[in-house]
């Protein structure tokens, strides 16, 4: 079983780079920070890295200042013994930059992910697409290692589960996800507080941007397409991070099955986010362009 292989991988190593995917969300950051705390509690050493800025809606997580930009690996006196990738299963999802990939590609590696898209990267690959979030997998891993799930770990795990199930509204919500959520709540976390941090912490600038984006929605049959330009960000005083979860809103209608958000990153460069319902697999589309997760 892949979980057992991951467990042995951790037992046999001591210094870990925990890598989260670019354009991060609460599942990848929550997974990384929960695993970081668990490893540190058993006298392992670890560092959590990401290529991009940590999203505003993740700033409430315990140990959030332990998430470093990937470039710090060039400067930090940290022995890179092993790599654990969480919430994606391709090194290209950590960074498109080849010099970043070179920092990590030669390390013994373990991939932990719940997305259907696949890649050949990783010496050990624990991939479980039916699971709602990667934090659920990290929960199982921590339990298998007989590590106590503290309140701080529970906050990180619950945040990832909450964001990837849409606060337990999406079709991926299961009996297992609710049981895990219940156990995490028993650790003393406040679900309402985490929900507010993830879904109800918009600034006035973000709300202005949202109104601009909503006015420009295009519909093609059962697909909704939204666009965020650099000019829109500048005019409303926002940054790329502020538009992150806009893509979820069109799915609230009865007839929209796929929602697409196109964000201008720079001249001739765009980032596309997709969400779907009714079993439509947009991750398969994203994987064709080195995306997904």
Description:
- By secondary structure, the protein is of the alpha/beta class.
- It has two domains: about 1-200, Alpha-Beta Complex (inorganic pyrophosphatase (n-terminal core)), CATH 3.90.1640; about 205-285, Roll (Diaminopimelate Epimerase, Chain A, domain 1), CATH 3.10.310.
- The protein is about 35% helix and about 20% strand.
- The chain contains ten helices and ten strands.
- A six-stranded parallel sheet has the order 3-2-1-4-5-6. A four-stranded mixed sheet has the order 7-8-9-10.
- Helix 3 links the parallel strand 4 and strand 5.
- Helix 2 (about 25-40) runs parallel beside helix 4 (about 135-145) and helix 8 packs across helix 9 (about 230-235).
- The radius of gyration is 19 Å and the shape is globular.
Supply the key terms.
293 residues, alpha/beta, 2 domains, six-stranded parallel sheet, 10 strands
Tell me the helix content. 25-40%
Average residue pLDDT: 93
CATH topology of the largest domain: inorganic pyrophosphatase (n-terminal core)
Number of domains: 2
Strand content: 15-25%
Count of extended strands: 10
CATH class of the largest domain: Alpha Beta
The radius of gyration computed from the alpha-carbon positions, rounded to a whole number of angstroms, is: 19 Å
Could you tell me how far the N terminus lies from the C terminus, measured between alpha carbons in angstroms?
Answer: 23 Å
């Amino acid at each position: 079983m892949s979980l057992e292989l991951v467990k042995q991988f951790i037992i046999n190593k001591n210094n870990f780079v925990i890598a989260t995917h670019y354009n991060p969300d609460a599942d990848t950051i929550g997974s990384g920070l929960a695993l970081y705390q668990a490893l540190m509690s058993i006298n392992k050493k670890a560092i959590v890295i990401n290529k991009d800025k940590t999203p505003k809606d993740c700033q409430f997580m315990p140990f959030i200042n332990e998430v470093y930009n990937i470039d710090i690996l060039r400067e930090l006196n940290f022995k890179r013994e092993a790599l654990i990738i969480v919430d994606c299963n391709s090194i290209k999802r950590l960074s498109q930059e080849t010099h970043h990939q070179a920092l990590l590609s030669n390390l013994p590696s373990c991939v932990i992910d719940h997305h259907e898209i696949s890649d050949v990267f990783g010496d050990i690959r624990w991939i479980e697409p039916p699971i709602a979030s990667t934090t659920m997998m990290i929960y199982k891993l921590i339990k298998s290692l007989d590590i106590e799930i503290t309140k701080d770990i529970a906050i990180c795990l619950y945040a990832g589960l909450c964001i990837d199930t849409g606060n337990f509204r999406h079709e991926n919500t299961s009996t297992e996800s609710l049981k895990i959520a219940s156990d995490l709540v028993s650790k003393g976390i406040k679900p309402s507080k985490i929900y507010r941090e993830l879904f109800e912490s918009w600034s006035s600038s973000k709300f202005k941007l949202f109104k601009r984006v909503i006015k420009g929605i295009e519909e093609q049959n059962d697909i909704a397409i939204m666009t965020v330009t650099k000019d829109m960000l500048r005019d409303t005083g926002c940054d790329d991070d502020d538009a992150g979860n806009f893509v979820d809103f069109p799915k609230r209608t009865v007839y929209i099955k796929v929602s697409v958000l196109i964000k201008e990153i720079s001249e001739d460069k765009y980032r596309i986010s997709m969400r779907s319902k009714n079993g439509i697999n947009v991750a398969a589309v994203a994987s064709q362009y080195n995306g997904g997760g």
